[in-house]
Specification:
Helix content is 62%, strand content 0%. By secondary structure, the chain is mainly α.
């Protein structure tokens, strides 16, 4: 019970800090770009778009991913003869400003706690995270697994951008995350040449297969705006994972004393 309690406590603290930090960064780095894209979306008559599940990410963002990306409302262009038809109910969405920011903070905190639980649980098999420096390295690993590797095939998308089938993207995203995580673990904790070769094959395999692509790449979004968004999402998620790992290491060392892992802690 002590082990479970410590894992949850550390994950909650780290997720809270990292989630708030991510939301603040997104408010200045990614949300303005999303709002610009929504202007192009409305001007272009709208585009049906399905988001893949995410880290700010991606993440989410997952973020696969920006975790603060707002829900999109599909806008259909009506013919002149249908102009008098009643508008479809687009559903509820948080209002721009504080309400939108507040929901973004809550979503990022929940996402941060989830990723922190994974980080703490997995690191315990390797002896635990004993300091903020070790936490930074674990954070870099999390960034590589959940943001960098999937983002090479499925870069973050803005509203009005075309996308492949949602289920196919989710399957590829999860497969990439799993193979990248296993590959990094083999490289880090195994030294034999055959296992290293296997690790490289696992990391590269999803990208050789290739991520699912849309039928058409036509979009009203300028290429420069999308490039800025990809860079912003990647950098904010990098900082998110560094903060998450560092806070896990700090809290872990504070509340477990000299114990090498949570299993040895009597806190």
């Amino acid at each position: 019970m002590n082990l479970f309690r410590n894992v949850v406590f550390i994950a909650a603290i780290a997720g809270l800090v990292a989630g708030v930090a991510l939301a603040c960064m997104q408010a200045y780095a990614t949300v303005p770009l999303i709002l610009k894209a929504e202007v192009y979306e409305k001007a272009g008559g709208g585009h049906e778009h399905q988001h893949a599940a995410a880290p700010a990410a991606n993440a989410a963002d997952t973020d696969a991913m920006s975790t603060a990306a707002p829900a999109e409302n599909a806008v259909s262009s009506a013919a002149p003869a249908e102009a008098a038809a009643p508008a479809e109910d687009e559903g509820w969405a948080p209002a721009d400003g504080f309400e939108r920011f507040a929901f973004s903070v809550v979503a990022n905190i929940v996402t941060g706690i989830g990723f922190a639980l994974v980080l703490v649980a997995v690191s315990e098999f390797a002896g635990g995270i004993g300091s903020w420096r070790q936490g930074v390295f674990w954070g870099l690993a999390g960034f590589a697994v959940f943001t960098l590797a999937p983002g090479l095939g499925l870069p973050p998308e803005l509203p009005a951008m075309p996308a492949a089938d949602l289920m196919q993207r989710q399957i590829w995203w999860w497969a990439t995350v799993m193979t990248t995580a296993i590959g990094l673990a083999l490289i880090t904790f195994r030294t034999s040449a055959p296992l290293t070769v296997l690790a490289v094959v696992l990391i590269v395999a999803p990208h050789i297969v290739g991520a699912p692509q849309p039928d058409s790449f036509v979009t009203p979004i300028p290429e420069g705006l999308h490039h800025q968004f990809v860079v912003a999402v990647t950098l904010t998620n990098l900082v998110f994972w560094l903060v998450l790992g560092a806070v896990v290491g700090i809290v872990h060392s504070r509340f477990t004393g000299t114990a090498t892992s949570l299993r040895d802690s009597f806190a």
